[in-house]
Amino acid sequence: MAAQVVIPGQPLYTPPTGSVASFRAGTGTYARGGTIYASLRGSCSREGGIISVLGKDDQQSIPEPNSTVIGTITRITRQAATLSLLTVDGKPCRPDFVGVIRAQDVRQTAKDSVKIWSCFRPGDVVRAKVISLGDSRSYFLSTAQNSLGVLFAVSGTTGATLEAVSWEEMRDPSSGELEGRKVAGPE
Amino acid sequence: MPREVDPSINESEFLHKALQQGLRTDGRSVYDMRDVKLTFGDELGWVECRLGETRVVVQVSGEIVKPLADRPYEGFLVISTEISPMASSAYEAGRASDEEVLMARLLEKALRRSEAVDREALCIVAGQKVWSIRVDVHFLDDEGNMLDCASIAAITALRHFRRPDVTVIGEDVTIHSMAEHVPVPLAIHHTPICLTFAFFGDDSLAVLDPSHLESLLASGTLTLTLNSQQEICVLSKAGGVPLPADDIMKVIQIGVQRVKEVDALIKSSLEMEAKKTVVEVR
Amino acid sequence: MAQSTTASTEAPAGTSALTPALFKRLHPRPYLDRFLQEGVRPDGRPLGADAGEAVWRDASVNIGSISTAPSSALIRLGNTTLVCGITLEIAPPDITTPNQGFIVPNVDLPALCSPLFRPGPPSDEAQVLSTRLRDILIASNVLPLASLIIEPAKAAFVVYLDVVCLNFDGGILDAAVLACVGALKNLRLPKATWDPDTGATLCEPISEKAQGESIPLNPLPLSVTFGIFNGHLLPDPTLFESTLCTSHITIVVSSTTSKLLHVYQAGAPLFSAGADGVEGGGREQLKACIALARSRAKGLLEILA
Amino acid sequence: MQQADRRRFGAPEGAVPLRFASTSSSAKPSSSSSRLDGRAPEQVRPIFLQTGLVGEASGSAYIETGRTKLICAVYGPKPTPPSAPFNAKARLNVEVKFAPFSSGVRRFTPGKDTESASLSATLQQSLLPSLILEALPKSQIDLFLTILESDGSDADISAGVTAASVALAEAGVQMYGLVVGCCAAFVPSSPLPLLDPTRAEAKTATAFASLACMPALGTITNVGVSGVVSVEQLDETLQKVVQACGQIHGVAKGALEVESA
Amino acid sequence: MAPRTDRSPTALRPLALSQSLLARADGSTKFSFGNVSVMASITGPTEVRIREELVDKATLEINVRPLRGLAGPSHKAAETLLTSLLAPLILLHLYPRSLLQLTLQTLSSSSTAFSTAFSTSPSSLTPSPSTVTLQSLPPSSAESAARINASMLALVDAGVACKGMLVAVAVAFVEGELRLDPTQREEEMATSRHVFAFSFGVDVGGTEGECVGVDSVGQFEVDELFEAQSLAQTATQAILAFIRKSIETRYGATGAPPPAAVKPAPAMKEEKMELPEEESEGDESMDDA
Question: Has this prediction a pTM greater than 0.95?
Answer without folding.
Answer: no
